[in-house]
Specification:
With 250 residues, the protein is of the alpha/beta class. It contains 9 helices and 9 strands. The strands form 2 sheets. The chain has a 7-stranded mixed β-sheet, with helices on both faces. 41% of the residues are buried.
């Protein structure tokens, strides 16, 4: 199978899955943060942007973090590739302007004082990482700030190694770090994309996320891509599931 076509299929599947799960995205205030590290880094981001900033919420999903940006006194533009998730976001925050734009298609030019991209870059293939970080650089005003999270290979070494061997055995055109299926606690099988649509949404919840493409780059590679994009790391740390980065446009 040709890799470019396979990656396009993986991206289409992710979009369809998030559309499928969008009706469940009705989180409560107590569920806003995935972890305390998310809270810490989002607050660090907000401390670094000027008052009354124009902010981009990229891969915003159902707008989970957008209310926090609004409450801090900023204006927000949200983008996502899932129409279903955007519909949920508009229900939560009708005052926010939302557009169906993928990270790969961003074409803003010095529009935002800051941007967030939380719990989304794990679905980005290695070929697209440099271009997306460049897109953020272009979207930010001079000295603008970006907060994003990433899954890194070092944090899930065993998962990544096993997934790579499974995918190669299936003849898939993967590179090391890509996970296209995953064992989920509570299930006695590999959760496939097809399984997700056969199991009631309420029974599977957000765990269906594991059924679509993930990429775990090496931490040093992420740091290199950040520098190559003209961004400087101001704060970095490891949370329960993610590596967290607050970076500034140089």
């Amino acid at each position: 199978m040709e890799r470019a076509a396979w990656l396009k299929r993986m991206r289409d599947k992710a979009e369809a899955l998030y559309d499928h799960f969008s009706p469940l995205e009705d989180w409560k205030e107590s569920e806003l943060y995935a972890t305390e590290t998310h809270r810490e880094y989002l607050q660090s981001f907000l401390e670094r942007v000027p008052p009354h900033s124009a902010l981009l919420s990229a891969a915003c999903g159902a707008g989970r973090y957008d209310g926090i940006l609004l409450e801090a006194g900023h204006s927000v533009v949200g983008i996502d590739q899932s129409a279903g998730m955007l519909a949920r976001a508009r229900e939560h925050f009708p005052q926010v302007h939302y557009d169906k734009i993928g990270l790969q298609e961003m074409d803003f030019r010095e529009t935002f004082d800051g941007a967030i991209c939380i719990d989304a870059m794990e679905h980005i293939c290695p070929e697209d990482w440099p271009g997306i970080l460049q897109n953020f650089w272009e979207a930010l005003k001079p000295n603008g700030v970006l907060y994003f999270t990433a899954n890194v290979a070092e944090a899930e070494k065993e998962v990544v190694e096993q997934a790579y061997e499974r995918a190669k055995a299936q003849g898939l055109p993967v590179v090391f770090g890509e996970v296209v299926d995953q064992v989920e606690e509570g299930f006695s099988f590999f959760l496939s994309y097809e399984d997700v649509f056969d199991i009631p949404k309420e029974a599977i919840g957000e765990r269906g996320d594991v059924a679509v493409y993930h990429y775990y780059p090496p931490l040093k590679q992420v740091q290199a891509w950040i520098g190559e994009a003209g961004l400087a790391i101001e704060k970095q740390g490891t949370g329960k599931w993610y590596e967290h980065f607050v970076v500034r446009k140089r």
